[in-house]
Amino acid sequence: MNDDIFAHLRGLIVAALGRILPDLPAEAFSKVVVEPPREASHGDMATNAALVVGKAAKLPPPKLAAQLAEALASLPEVAEATPAGPGFVNIRLEEGFLRAVVPLVLRRGEAFGEGAPKPGRVNLEYVSANPTGPMHVGHCRGAVVGDALAGLLSKAGFDVTKEYYINDAGAQVQALAWASFWRYLEALPRDAHGLWEEGADEAARKAAVEARYGVQLQYGGHYLLPVGQALAEAHGSALLEPSEANLLLIRRFAVERMMEEIRADLAALGVRHDVFVSEAALIEAGKLEEAEARLAAQNLIYRGVLEPPKGKTPEDWEPREQTLFRATDFGDEVDRPLRKSDGSGTYFANDIANHLHKLERGFTQLLHVWGADHGGYVRRMQAAVAALSSREVPLDVVLAQIVHVVKDGQPVRMSKRAGTYVTLADLIEEVGKDAVRFTMLTRKSDAQMEFDLDLVVQQSRDNPVFYVQYAHARARSVLRAAGDPAASELEGADLSHLSDPAELGLIRRMASWPRVVEGAAAAREPHRIAFFLNDLAGDFHLLWNKGKDDTALRFIQDAAPEATKARLALVSAMAVVIRSGLGVMGVTPVEEMR
RNA sequence: GUCUCCGUAGCUCAGCAGGAUAGAGCACCAGAUUCCUAAUCUGGGGGCCGUGGGUUCGAAUCCCGCCGGGGACACCA
Hints:
By secondary structure, the chain is an alpha/beta fold. The protein folds into four domains: 5-93, Gyrase A, domain 2 (2-Layer Sandwich); 122-166 and 273-400, 3-Layer(aba) Sandwich (Rossmann fold), CATH 3.40.50; 171-267, no CATH class; 459-585, Isoleucyl-tRNA Synthetase, Domain 1. It has helices at 5-20, 49-57, 61-73, 95-99, 101-108, 137-155, 171-187, 202-213, 225-235, 244-268, 279-284, 287-297, 347-360, 378-388, 424-431, 433-440, 464-481, 487-491, 501-511, 513-523, 527-549, 561-585; strands at 34-35, 45-47, 78-84, 88-93, 121-125, 159-166, 275-278, 301-305, 321-325, 336-339, 365-371, 395-400, 403-407, 410-411, 449-452. The strands form four sheets. It has a five-stranded parallel β-sheet, with helices on both faces. Strands 1-2-4-3 form a four-stranded antiparallel β-sheet. A hairpin with a 2-residue loop joins strand 13 (403-407) and strand 14 (410-411). The longest helix has 25 residues, at 244-268. The mean pLDDT is 90. It binds one RNA strand through helix 2, strand 10, helix 17, helix 20 and helix 21. Monomer. InterPro entries: aa-tRNA-synth_I_CS, Arg-tRNA-ligase, Arg-tRNA-synth_N, Arg-tRNA-synth_N_sf, ArgRS_core, DALR_anticod-bd, Rossmann-like_a/b/a_fold, tRNAsynth_Ia_anticodon-bd. It is found in: Cytoplasm. Its EC number is 6.1.1.19. Keywords: Aminoacyl-tRNA synthetase, ATP-binding, Cytoplasm, Ligase, Nucleotide-binding, Protein biosynthesis.
């Protein structure tokens, strides 16, 4: 049997309907849904089968529902099936069938909930922070959402490659090179260049470099100081002349160091990508020209002048002839420039090369996690991928809204200048990787969220991180007290001892884990996992609390070894499902609190 | 002006590819509890699901208009 008892029942229902209506084609049943009814008193499951099939069968749904209910009632899995409302069938499962979820979970372990392998290969790109400095909290949500989404898709049976695109070409890394050059000069003895007076402060040194070389130093961060030091140690004064070759060397060196830092930040967050793709390497390999040629071959490129943007026109706007891509053929609002008026490639063109590179590696589904400020970029990228793949490979983008960090009820401003620049490393150090990851997933990713530094470390019901971890720790504490019985030993327990509504409720919740995985993966909404775990923890805490009042409901009953064994099986299975869910989220379960 | 996301309880948010009487936590009210199975528990009040239409057996959910809010809008990355 499949892990998912809802899918199992759906199969039985479709089969039963097929016997009642032998002439109906299979696709008539495609909209049949089996789900837990909102109202618990309606039973364990409900199906809309009679409603959605009624029209094709030319039968009034209530009548069909009655027939279906009768057929289902004779199944061994089903205790009771009753037609209801406009054509639903409510199903109450045999308790034995429901309870069988417990040994199933124990047998499958944390693999419980895994979906059947899905065809195709998914490429999921996320983070892709520019290699111009350490990661800050703004990058954090995308990193967590992307990583959890990757975990979720894998769990659901997809073959997922986690990719990081390094923006190591273009103006920003050139600015990084200049800033590194400045820090390099500072690391040398002053008389090596004589650009500033002895004792000149940082602003003066910066101004001297800007004046001497006619550049603007955009990156002033102190994180470049060690880069300058290392350059001075490795090359002495050999790089004093900022020639093209020297700047290239410095750029590569700085990018490498920044990527090391970013990888360290990601590792601290528990994020590991499978592949790092370099923009500069793609350009060197000629991917840009290749992509352009592909588009040109389809007559999708032309020289043209774009209209001024609607609304407020920029003051310096002037018509310019550029190389344009016919994005409008693929649903975009305007055609998009591939080359600037000076003939150099746009970022968009490079990104097309990036996507061509993905397609060439055989991915059949492309996914991105982007910040919401990139929302306007989605259409054109989808247009490009559609053009390059003959509309066969879909590109989907999950947008992550901004996170406001709050402490003591006050927003924590992100300002490099004011020195309140919150790096990802700072955040992780303050509250821990697991709290960061879990909390980032307690909101839908396209909704703005507040990250309350005080709340995430609070040990109370209000803090879902704590609440879920606490449930696991409690379960583990019970199992330890019982001598940590092996799963194989618990599988044989006589589960008929589990009859309290709270116990059965917990089993029902666990039973829904596979369909939560399936649904969340299909919707690309990893936050659903966090909500599920919160609910599961709630069910477990409820049972625990009943045991506080009524000692007969406690898990360990010295006088009743069989009942104890059954309950330990339940507790153990619950802990397995929590671990399974936390595993998807990349959060480490705790054995005990503190 | 165009595109896009959003509008659900006093607050913060869920609502699972259209389903039955719309949920949770906080806050509020009422009880219980000081027990290491610790870091509370049980119950209760509270909603024109922004608004007006449409689609259909059925809409918080899908479509259109309006109102209100966030974000993005030539050659930046």
